[in-house]
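Format is sequence with structure; example below:
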Amino acid sequence: MGYHEVQGSAAMKFISTKPVMIITTLHKSGIVNAGVFGAYTNLSATHVGAAISTDSHTYANIIRDKQFVINIPGADIVKTLAVIADDIPENQSELELAGLTPKPGVSVTVPSIAECAAALEFIFDKEISIDDHAFLVGKIRGGWIKDEFLDDDGRINIFKARVMKDFKYPKPLYVLPGEVIEG
C-alpha cells in the first residue's frame, strides 16, 4: 500500500467534506443575505462556531447586527445552493433569486428559510481572526424544525429530512447519509 504525502496546507484537502448549511443574515437595507457554508462545529450545548471569510457579506452582516441563522437544507433544494453560493450584490437577495421563502425568526430579526428542514437562531458572541477568515462563535437563541423531521429524541431525523452531510467544493457534489453502523 502506498501513501500520497504532501507538505503544508495541501493536506487540508483531505478533510474537505463537511456538513452543509445555509447562513442567513440581513444587509443594512434589510434585504436577506444567504450563503452556503461547511466549516462549522458545535462548541457546547449552547454555542456553535463557523469559519467565514472576512470579505463576505455574511461576515459584515453578523458583525454589524450580531445575529445569524443556520438553516439545514434537505436534498430537495440542492439545486438552489449554486444560486446561493454565487457572488450576489447586496441589493439583491439570494433567497429571492433561488426561489426560496423567508420565514420570520422565532427569537431574532433575521429570517430563516421556510423550505429548509430546520433552522437555528444565534446571537454573535465572539470572533477569532484566522488569516482571511474569522471563526465566529454564536450563542443559540431559538429555532424550529419541521414536524415530520423530528425524531423521538427531539433531534433531526437526517434520513427523513434528507440532510446533506458532506460536499465537495467548489464542484457541487453532495452526499446523503445512507448507512448507520453501530459501534
Notes: DSSP finds four helices and eleven strands in the chain.
